[in-house]
Amino acid sequence: MVLFSHICSFLPLVSPTGVLEPLPTGSALVTESKNKLPCSDVYVFFARGSLEPPLLGPIATPFKQSLERILAPRSISLSFTGIDYPNLPEYFFLGGHPLGGRTMTLAVRTTILICPMSDIIISGYSHGAQLTHDTAFQLLPHERNRIAGVVTFGDPLYRHPLPPPLQARRLSFCHPGDNICDGDFYDIRAAHFSYHLNATDAAKFVAERVGRGGFGRAKL
């Protein structure tokens, strides 16, 4: 959490006009961070659904706990961070809050620069899954190569592929009867609220893809 607190200090690089400005790789801040701050082995950035409490919500919490149980015996350190964004339903119907996607992208981009040997996972539920897609497309090709995996739950963009190579590194949970996955935003059924049941499977998927030091840079 020390590192992510430092990462948050870069968030003003989202300009007042909403433009995401890449961090310069040779900047003093990035150089200082590489030299002085410890990096976790694995970073998970998760965006919660509409109206869920900050910052993880009922889907991410068991996901995080399951992943901790798997990684701890392997002495793999984990940073699991909820993306702070205005998770209002009206933005869900518009395809996701743009600030949320930019915030996740900046967090990922900064982690890539500061922690070149860490594995990174991007994840989200429902509205948060929309932001995960936004981030996948906002990242530059060489940045996408650093993403070890993508996990979404109740994804409104379930049938929409991610840019390469992320589509091949993607796990998306969509329950039978969850119309959200078919793009029907106005018929939200009980199936959309049961993704905590997939926490263990999601954690196993992530655990298989991380812990090798920058795994996402080299392999599918």
Automatic annotation (TrEMBL):
SS bond partners: 39-115, 174-181
InterPro entries: AB_hydrolase_fold, Cutinase/axe, Cutinase_monf
Organism: Panaeolus cyanescens
Record flagged with keyword Disulfide bond: yes
GO molecular function: cutinase activity
E.C. numbers: 3.1.1.74
Name of the protein this chain belongs to: cutinase
Residues annotated as signal peptide: 1-16
Domain of life: Eukaryota
Catalytic residues as annotated in Swiss-Prot or TrEMBL: 126, 178, 192
Lineage: Eukaryota, Fungi, Dikarya, Basidiomycota, Agaricomycotina
Family: Belongs to the cutinase family.
Biological process, per Gene Ontology: carbohydrate catabolic process
Listed PANTHER family: CUTINASE, CUTINASE 2-RELATED
Catalytic activity: cutin + H2O = cutin monomers
Keywords on record: Disulfide bond, Hydrolase, Signal
